[in-house]
Amino acid sequence: MVKLPKAALTTVLLFLAAVPLIAQNNRSAVSVTGSDMATCTVPDPCRTFGVAISKTNSGGEVVALSSGGYGPFTIDRSATVTAAPGVYAAIALNGLGTAITVNSGAGGRVTIRGLSLYGFGFAQVGIDVTQSGEETHIENCIIDRFGNGDGILAFLNITVSDTIIRGCRSGIWINAPIKASIERVQIYDTTALYAILAAGGSNVTVRDSISIRSDGNGFLANASILTLENCLSSRAASYGIAGVGLGGVARISNCVVTDNTYGLVGTIETFGNNKVRGNGTDIYSASLISVAQQ
Question: In whole angstroms, what is the distance from residue 223 CA to residue 214 CA?
C-alpha cells in the first residue's frame, strides 16, 4: 500500500472538503416528483425549494418545473426563485408561520416570481423581507389569506409588480427608512389595518394600483412619504388615502377615491387632477397642498 506524505495527504483532504462547496448549480430545479436527495439540476430536480436553494450558487436561479404544492422556505443568498412558464407553484401554510423569508445576507439581491402563496386565514406573513438583503423584487405573485399578518412585510428595499394580494390582515407594510416601488398591484379585502402602509420614515411610490374593500385604510403614509399615481382607493372602512404622523404626506396624481368612509385625510399634496367623490366624507381634517404640474 502506498503511503502518502503528510503534506500530500493534507492537500487531498482539503480538496475533498472543498468539493461540496464548489459543486453548486447556477440553475437548480424543483418538481413535485423530485427528491431532496437529488442533485437539484433540471434533469435531476429536488422536491423542495429550501434544499434546491442550498445547492445553488449565489446569484443563481431555482425553477419550479411542475405544478403542485411546495413548502415554505428561506432565501439565504442572492437568487431568483421562479415558476417555469405555465407552471402553478403553490406555497401553502395550514397554520401560523411565514411562507417565504428573505435573509440573503448583506448586499443580497433576490427575485421571487410567479409563485402562489396561501395562508388559509391563519398564517402570518406571505413574504417577509425584514432581515438582511440589498433589494428584493416580487413579481407576478398571488398572496392569499394571510389573516394573522401581512401579505408582504418589508424593512429592506423592495419592488412589487403585477401581484394580487387578497384577504390578508394588511396588504403591504413598509416599516423602515427605505425606498419601495409598487406597480400594477391589486389588493382586496384587507381584514383589519390597511392595503398599503408606508411607515418608519420610508419613501414609497405606488403606480397603477388599487385597494378595494379594506376593513381599515386604503393607502396610508405614517411619518413617511407615499406617492400615488393613477391609483384607486374604494370601500375602505376608514381612510381612502391619508398622510399622518410627523412628516407624513401622501402625494397624489390622477387618483380615484370613492365609497370610503373618509376620502382624503391628513397632509395631502395634490396635483389637482384627482377624483374624490362619493365618500361618507370626501375631505376630513385634511391639509390639501396644491402642487403645480411640472
Answer: 21
